[in-house]
TrEMBL record:
Belongs to the small heat shock protein (HSP20) family. This is Putative small heat shock protein HSP20. The keyword Ion transport does not apply. It holds the Pfam family HSP20. Transmembrane segments: none annotated. SUPFAM superfamilies: HSP20-like chaperones (SSF49764). Keywords: Stress response. The lineage of its organism: Eukaryota, Viridiplantae, Streptophyta, Embryophyta, Tracheophyta.
Length: 181
C-alpha cells in the first residue's frame, strides 16, 4: 500500500496563535483525563507528543518544551519497549527530525505548524472537536484542551527556523524537518 504525503505550510508569524495561551494545570488535566472518552485518551495518553505527562512528569503543553536537550533513546526506550510511543525525534548532521502520530485525525485533520521566530519555538496544534456556537478557528482559549491539542517545542540554538518543512503521511503521521544553520 502506497503512502500519501502532504506538505503542511509552516506559518512564520511574529507570534504563534494565542488560542493556546491558557495553561493546563496538572490537577485540571487529571480531572479532564479521568473522563471515559477514548478520544481524550488517544490525544493525551501515554506516548503521545501532546500528553502533558510527557516522560512521566507533567509538562504544560502550551509551554515551550526543550525536546532537543533530551536523548530520545533514553527517554523513549520504555515507551518503545511497550509499543506506547507515538513520537520520535533525532538529531542528524543536517538538522533535527521530529516524527509523531497525530491523534484524532484523518482526512479532515486540522494540523497547524507555527514558528515563533523571536523565541525560536515551533508549535504543533490541531482541533479534535469543534466548540459549540463558534466559528471555526475562532474559539476561545478558555479550555483549549477540551477542543484541541498543542505542543510547543523550543528549537535548538543552531536551528534554521526559516527553512523548516513539515509533511503529514497517510493523514496521521507528522514529520517535521528543522535544518541547522
Amino acid at each position: 500500500m502506497a503512502s500519501s504525503k502532504k506538505l503542511i505550510e509552516v506559518q512564520t508569524e511574529d507570534q504563534t496563535p494565542h488560542k493556546w495561551c491558557v495553561s493546563l494545570g496538572e490537577e485540571v488535566f487529571k480531572r479532564f483525563f479521568s473522563q471515559v472518552n477514548p478520544t481524550v485518551h488517544k490525544v493525551f495518553g501515554d506516548g503521545s507528543l501532546f500528553s502533558p505527562m510527557l516522560f512521566g512528569k507533567f509538562f504544560d503543553p502550551s509551554d515551550a518544551f526543550p525536546l532537543w536537550e533530551f536523548e530520545s533513546d533514553i527517554l523513549l526506550s520504555h515507551l518503545r519497549s511497550t509499543n506506547q510511543s507515538t513520537v520520535d525525534w533525532c538529531q542528524t548532521n543536517e538538522g533535527y527530525i521530529l516524527k509523531a502520530e497525530i491523534p484524532g485525525t484523518g482526512k479532515n485533520n486540522n494540523i497547524e505548524v507555527h514558528v515563533d521566530k523571536g523565541k525560536k519555538v515551533v508549535e504543533i496544534s490541531g482541533q479534535w472537536k469543534k466548540q459549540k456556537d463558534s466559528k471555526e478557528n475562532e474559539w476561545s482559549c478558555g479550555h483549549w484542551w477540551e477542543y484541541g491539542y498543542v505542543r510547543r517545542l523550543e528549537m535548538h540554538e543552531d536551528a534554521d527556523w526559516k527553512h523548516i518543512h513539515a509533511h503529514i503521511y497517510n493523514d496521521i503521521f507528522l514529520e517535521i524537518h528543522i535544518p541547522r544553520l
